[in-house]
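User: Last request for today: this protein with iron/sulfur cluster, please.
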Amino acid sequence: MTNNKTLCPYCGVGCGLEVSPPAQAGRETNRDSQGNPMWKVQGDRTHPSSQGKVCVKGATVTEAIAKDRLLHPMVRNSLDEPFQRVSWDEALNLVVGRIQAVCKSPGADAISFYGSGQFCTEDYYVAAKLLKGFLGTNNFDTNSRLCMSSAVSGYVQSLGSDGPPCCYEDLELTDCAFLIGTNTADCHPIVFNRLRQHHKKNRDVKLIVVDPRTTSTAQAADLHLPIRPGTDIDLLNGIAHLLLRWGYFDSGFIDECTNNFPAFADVIKHYPPDVVAGRCGISVNDLETAAKIWGKSSRVLSMWSMGVNQSSEGTAKVQTLINLHLMTGQIGKPGAGPFSLTGQPNAMGGREVGALTSLLPGYRFVTNPAHCAEVEEFWGLSAGRISPTPGRNALEMIRDLENSAVKFLWIAATNPAVSLPDLERTKAALRRSPFTVYQEAYYPTETAAYAHVLLPATQWSEKTGTMTNSERRITLCNGFRFPQGEARDDWAIFAEVGRRLGFVEQFTYANSAEVFAEYVQLTRDRLCDQTGISHNRLKTEGPLQWPCSESGNLKPGEPARLYTDLKFPTPDKRAIFAAYHSRGLAEPPDQQYPYVLTTGRLYGHWHTQTRTGRIDKIRKMHPQPFIEIHPRDAKKLGIQDQDWVEVRSRRGYARFLATVTQAISPGTVFVPMHWGELWADHAEANALTHPEACPDSQQPELKACAVQLAPVKPEIVSSEVLYKATEFKELTNIQSS
Ligand code: SF4
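Assistant: Here's the final one, the structure of the complex with iron/sulfur cluster:
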């Protein structure tokens, strides 16, 4: 517990942090609002990704780590009963007994596991080995399903493999940054900071931002395209149309490195500028300017996140964006490429380890018999043990709770009672679960209300493991505090369950370094080769990017890009043009529900506030949920700034204070997604959203649904709806004492 370097546990930027103990000689100890001593945190100047910079979330993270922790295993027979504290032995016997009973009848397919991008790679790996290998079910999904599964699917289909080809150094080498569906300034602040410095210093560098909102990212743009929600593919095909018309394409690259260009060219001829501008709600001039900037730039870097991925055509959007890179040869070179920004700190690690229902470790697929055979052999399983069928994803888990196909639900380090779409339906389904294990560091969370067993997990600061950030850089997150209460590491809980199920040899690890050492062997000779990386090397040399094979000679901090030889991991080494027409929104506005609701994140908060809701500075920064409405719509509805507004969709309702602002386009409204029942009454964005998902990635369209708005009489609501955690805390104290 002496090494003080680690990684920020919030977003996929993956900033390096240095922490120092609370009590230092001669200084007064800082304490959090519950009186716990607080560790000091600052940016790690030696970390290549962040170079010492850190945003408000990273800078305040230690304020949340000791508060409202789940300290002991707890159980109850039904959701109406209070939890009773039990020993680990009792809790694990109950869990293992239930798994054995379900495996016997109706079978392992009745088990569903839902994990998290907050996991370390080691946590994912042991869970994947247990579920996909030894229990024989691919029903292992994570909250990355909601975040970037469309990016995975798009990369795989266009380039032959997952894996963002770029690195952060490209932020300072590009001459055109094309940001679509990402409020980078607020959601990936340190990436934006690096890009913005480069943009400010170099007048010729252009920044294009595509977003229906005038976000802080859009405010910094040379060109902001506030397109209507659901018209991304129109825009991208429209830009491609102009690039082709004006001769801004790389015929050598297209001929030698790609397939399917004719089908793509056939599609984009239907996207002339006047049609595209009309559909997108932008001017022809702005569309042409965007195409000209892209066409004339020698290094184009595109970036995207949830605004593209969270869509019923998310994969098609990702591929249509990659098309622009393929037609102009903007990939595999410094300063260029399609760069997906990941949400969670280790969503990338999850992709590498196989933590989605269709994946296996080392960028393998359950649908590929050779991949299954390789992993079976490595894990010492009999042939055919790994199911060749993708398992039940997050949305199917809800469906199958409804139809009673799920008999054992295991949720870890995530909060689906706030984050899944169509929340009333989700909560009703969670209520139906006959047996739910919830493994978490904090209590209360909204999801704890649906659990029969609570297993206390260590979290960042208490466990040692690795995480991979958006630029494929792996950092060792050192544990620097002792676990609170009886909390155990996630990987250790999975391993203990594995041993109690009888797989003693296969799940015995002395520490997480041993887990990592085993896992990296499954990356050997794969695109994401990490065989040259170990905990010890990370500790002594610092963070490393993959590919990093045993024989590779990449130095720490040296940038690694993919596809620099212009060969792609497809059978004929060529990338593939996709040919998609826009399908638009799954639920377009109509007479009854005339507005498009889009959801998003705020600078200070993280997801469902499990940590940031417990940090005073951040709560003061974002004291309450709100809805952004354009002045024209507000006038039409008789809504003034700071009036209460009731928002209804076909699935539910919520109430927010109005922020009347030009920052949102007419016809569109915006609410942040951070507030669940724990923090405010009737302010859940996902009470309104629908579960329609991309057919390829199964990522739901959390970014757009049709709603109606009405002002609410002031006497119906009061502003005393916020921060109710005290009530829950009292409950915790009673039950755990
Ligand atoms: Fe943490 Fe992301 Fe902020 Fe960096 S940018 S400090 S990783 S939240």
